[in-house]
Design brief:
alpha/beta, Aspartate Aminotransferase, domain 1, Aspartate Aminotransferase, domain 2, seven-stranded mixed β-sheet, four-stranded mixed β-sheet, 15 strands, 37% helix, globular
Length: 452
């Protein structure tokens, strides 16, 4: 199509993008037409380095021929299998391969097609599990402030980010929130490690006040995204694991972002050596080539859903495109790429290099904290690093840095006071240096405009 027509307001006005004000978008639209490796190309031929893997998704890189060829081969055989009646060979094989890489005995897998589906399914599984194991009163779900678990109503009810959910309230009954481990800005005004992971222990306080017999699950992102790459301090996840075990609460990890090599292990559960009862996966599960997601759960949970037809104990949940053969073929090829190329090791090595280089940003006098693990890094900007005084929200310092970076050819994840990098795990050292160089130039530009 004609480039001018593609970017014209009349062509874009009927389109609704995710979480974007379209009146603003059509003033300077970004329309991407090609991608390869860690690079996008827009309709004007401008190259943009993908510093955020699309949106924490394209772990194996764009234009990966192994994944594309697998999809093409499956397309020639069968594109859709009836999920109420049958499955397909690639779906069976994908489940088998996933069970080999999930932690501990999380061997049973429900295939889905999106992250919101996965978190919804996990919470529904928890409620039905307790109902079928003699604890029908356990229905409440605990999650964390700043967390984001998806766009559907159950996922939004667990979400603790005001901007994402207040316009849809009231959300569903039975959802409770606790503070996350924001060690840099501890809401309890404590300091790690002297705090003895107090924030984890507040979860048990909430459980006891609500009544353990009413709490079904605790859902969390091992590394929080929307709060600015919130890292769990040592001992935090293991403490939550013990609390959940003590009170017969199912621990759910939302690994939509952290799964499939992003944190340096196949899953963050392995990176932090604390396994959940249910693990939600998506995004990097197919590297974005076909919508694919799923949940993996323990054998002991799976056994509660086995019985005769008349018992009606099967998991009462389904989605049209769950276990889609095209998606399964993509997932198999993507998993093979991650394992054969040892992209988990690449994430650890490149990520360590990125965080080391990010420390040099402190020379600008506006960096408060640098967080992350694997190839997932976040930088929090502050007006005064000594006092940790934040910038005036109206300044939107992080947004301006992100917008400047995009103008210079780098796509990032940015919020008013922080910015994140999470490029495809296949990024080279040369490309990594270029990514950091553009970020440096962008920060320098915004600092200069802010102070002078």
């Amino acid at each position: 199509m004609n480039t001018e027509l593609l970017t014209a307001p009349e062509s874009l006005r009927r389109l609704v993008l995710d979480l974007r004000q379209m009146e603003t978008f059509i003033e300077d639209p970004l329309v991407i037409q090609k991608a390869d490796g860690v690079w996008y190309e827009d309709v004007n031929g401008r190259r943009i380095l993908d510093g955020i893997s699309g949106i924490f998704t394209v772990n194996a890189g764009h234009n990966n021929r192994r994944i594309i060829d697998a999809i093409k081969a499956q397309l020639d055989t069968m594109a859709f299998a009836p999920p109420l009646h049958a499955t397909s060979p690639p779906a069976i094989e994908l489940v088998r391969r996933l069970a080999e890489v999930t932690p501990e005995d999380l061997n049973t897998i429900k295939l889905l097609s999106g992250g919101s589906e996965a978190t919804e399914a996990a919470m529904k599984l928890a409620r039905q599990y307790h109902r079928q194991t003699g604890n029908p009163g356990k229905f409440k779900v605990i999650s964390r402030f700043h967390g984001y678990h998806g766009a559907t109503m159950g996922a939004l009810s667990a979400t603790g980010t005001r901007r994402r959910k207040t316009m849809f309230e009231p959300t569903l009954h039975g959802f409770l929130h606790v503070h996350p481990p924001t060690c840099y800005r501890c809401p309890f005004e404590k300091t790690f490690p002297d705090c003895d992971v107090f924030c984890a222990r507040t979860v048990e306080d909430l459980v006891e006040l609500e009544g353990p017999e009413t709490v079904a699950a605790l859902i969390l992102e091992p590394v929080g995204n929307t709060g600015g790459i919130i890292m769990p301090p040592p001992g935090y996840l293991s403490e939550l694991r013990e609390i959940c075990t003590r009170h017969d609460i199912l621990l759910i990890y939302d690994e939509i972002i952290t799964g499939f090599g992003r944190t340096g292990g196949m899953f963050a559960a392995q990176t932090f050596e604390a396994a959940p009862d249910i693990l939600c996966m998506g995004k990097g599960m197919s590297s974005g080539y076909v919508p694919l997601a799923g949940i993996a759960f323990r054998d002991s949970i799976a056994s509660a859903f086995l019985g005769r037809e008349e018992d009606e104990v099967e998991f009462s949940h389904g989605h049209t495109f769950g276990g889609n053969p095209l998606a399964a073929a993509a997932g198999l090829a993507n998993l093979a790429e991650i394992q054969d190329r040892d992209l988990c090791a690449s994430a650890r090595e490149t990520g360590a290099y990125v965080r080391q280089r990010l420390e040099d940003l402190r020379e600008f006098g506006i960096v408060g904290d640098i967080r992350g693990c694997g190839l997932l890094a976040g930088v929090e900007f502050v007006a005064d690093p000594e006092t940790r005084e934040p910038f005036d929200p109206s300044l939107k310092f992080g947004v301006r840095v992100g917008q400047s970076a995009l103008e210079k050819g780098l796509l990032t994840r940015f919020d008013p006071n922080w910015i994140a990098l999470a490029p495809p795990l296949v990024i080279t050292r040369e490309e990594t240096d270029l990514m950091l160089e553009i970020l440096w130039d962008s920060i320098r530009e915004v600092v200069k405009k802010t102070r002078y």
